[in-house]
Design brief:
The protein is of the alpha/beta class. Among the domains are: 47 residues, 434 Repressor (Amino-terminal Domain) (Orthogonal Bundle); 120 residues, Rossmann fold (3-Layer(aba) Sandwich). It contains 14 helices and eleven strands. The strands form two sheets. The protein has a seven-stranded mixed β-sheet with strand order 2-1-3-4-5-11-10. Strand 3, helix 8 and strand 4 form a beta-alpha-beta unit. Helix 1 crosses helix 2. The longest helix has 18 residues.
């Protein structure tokens, strides 16, 4: 049996091109025709060049290099303008630095072949995803033996079967505690109607969870109507109760929707409707005097992600259990999540 090629010269010979062309292929620098690139790509796939090289030189070549992969639909600028993403970026960079890892930003086309090319031609030892990505991203990394972690992967919640039956490579936002805290606040402050926007897709069985709390506390749920209002499918009056003396509390995750509600709904007496939003938006500071905002410890989220990722690299593993980071109310005059 012929020995598989393991050097650039072998790849060049198999592809029928020069070594300079192969070097350009791996570095991503310099022009290559589509035909030449296809021939080299076929030779690399045939020989498993990237996999063999990784197996022989992982410790010396790539164990101190991590990557944040950004799908091509986004840009660094769009991430930087997103308050939550910007915080996670900064915290991830600091967490990686403290563990003596370099952190790269990698733009990734969503086509399977294009993403595989990126994996073959880069030397990162682990990948951090800050958002949902196509399934083949994870499948490709698994095939190449590269660990990955999701930040804020929120389809699971503590105690669900998925948590116990499957390893989930993620730091996960736990919204259940926050929702329970909001209900406690609503009861204490006389709110009889409550609506959540943006959180129903964040936890398993969210509708049943919220309905159960509404039933326990005798509170009317207008979450579905609030969502329709925020997305322009219904007008403002549909979420306001007919009895103006009865208090309504709105909990809105999306900033633009929260601004819309603040602008359009607060023409009624202030004591009949309250608004709680994610992150610290000064515009809402007088709406609910007792509460500033909902917050998530983004520093901890990124730190947990980097710790999970570097731990898998050190142990040579591809799976780890999820770590849950709570979302909580932040009381005015405090800096801690409560």
């Amino acid at each position: 049996m012929d020995k598989s090629p393991s050097t650039i010269k072998d790849i060049a010979r198999l592809a029928g091109v020069g070594t300079t062309s192969v070097s350009k292929y791996f570095s991503g620098k310099g022009y290559l025709s589509e035909e030449t690139r296809a021939r080299i790509d076929a030779a690399v796939k045939k020989t498993d060049y990237r996999i063999n090289k990784s197996a022989s030189s992982l410790k010396s070549r790539s164990t101190r290099e991590l990557a944040i992969v950004i799908p091509e639909k986004n840009t660094y600028t769009s991430y930087a303008r997103d308050h939550f993403m910007a915080q996670k970026f900064a915290a991830a960079i600091e967490a990686a630095f403290l563990q003596k890892y370099d952190l790269l930003l990698v733009y990734a086309p969503t086509e399977p072949d294009a993403f595989e090319h990126i994996v073959r031609t880069h030397t990162f030892a682990g990948v951090l995803f800050l958002e949902r990505v196509p399934e083949h991203f994870a499948e490709t990394l698994t095939r190449f033996g590269i660990p990955y972690v999701f930040s804020n992967f929120t389809s699971l919640a503590p105690g669900t079967p998925e948590q116990t039956d499957n390893a989930v490579n993620a730091a996960v936002s736990d919204f259940r505690g926050m929702i329970a805290d909001v209900f406690q606040f609503a009861v204490q402050n006389g709110y009889r109607t409550i609506g959540f926007q943006g959180f129903l897709n964040r936890i398993d069985d969210a509708s049943a969870f919220i309905s159960g709390l509404c039933g326990s506390h005798g509170i009317h749920d207008v979450s579905s109507v609030l969502t329709e209002y925020c997305t322009g499918k219904t007008d403002a009056s549909s979420i306001l109760i007919s009895d103006s003396e009865e208090k309504t509390l709105l909990v809105i995750e999306n900033r633009s929707f929260a601004m819309k509600a603040h602008r359009e709904l607060f023409t009624v007496p202030q004591n009949t409707i309250g608004l709680i939003a994610m992150d610290d938006f000064p515009e809402f500071s007088s709406v609910v005097p007792e509460i500033s905002h909902l917050a998530q410890d983004t520093d901890r989220m990124s730190k947990e992600c980097i710790t999970l990722l570097t731990g898998m690299i050190t142990r040579g593993e591809m799976k780890c259990s999820a770590v849950y980071v709570p979302v909580r109310l932040v009381r005015k005059g405090t800096t801690a999540l409560q």
